[in-house]
Write a structure and sequence with these properties.
By secondary structure, this protein is mainly beta. Helices cover 13% and strands 49% of the residues. The chain has a five-stranded antiparallel sheet. It starts with a strand and ends in a 10-residue tail after the last strand. 1% of the residues are buried.
């Protein structure tokens, strides 16, 4: 795998510094991927959450269907940050009816 293009952006918010990056990866298999990464700081004092991670689960399933299993979405908390990585194949056609 070779990195074809890369861009990153930092932004200060009330909990620290957030990072957003995009990377175009070129693979020997002929499939290129766009990797989107967002890293956000987690507040020191936990914020009450009503979330059930349903949105991440739904989005992961939609990506799987739209890109025939070639796309992925991963999220994890590590220490004081939460990181999301979305990997999308660069394609000319996406399966319709998934929105």
């Amino acid at each position: 795998m070779a990195r074809f293009a890369y861009f990153e952006c930092y932004q200060q918010n009330r909990y620290g510094i957030s990072l957003a990056s995009t990377e175009l990866q070129k693979h020997g298999s002929g499939v290129d991927y766009l990797l989107l990464t967002v890293v956000n700081p987690v507040p020191e004092v936990p914020v009450p959450s009503q979330g059930s991670r349903l949105a991440l689960t739904n989005l992961t399933e939609r990506l799987r269907i739209a890109y025939d299993g070639r796309a992925s979405l991963h999220g994890e908390r590590k220490d004081d940050h939460f990181r999301i990585e979305m990997r999308l194949p660069v394609v000319t056609e996406v399966r319709q009816g998934v929105a």
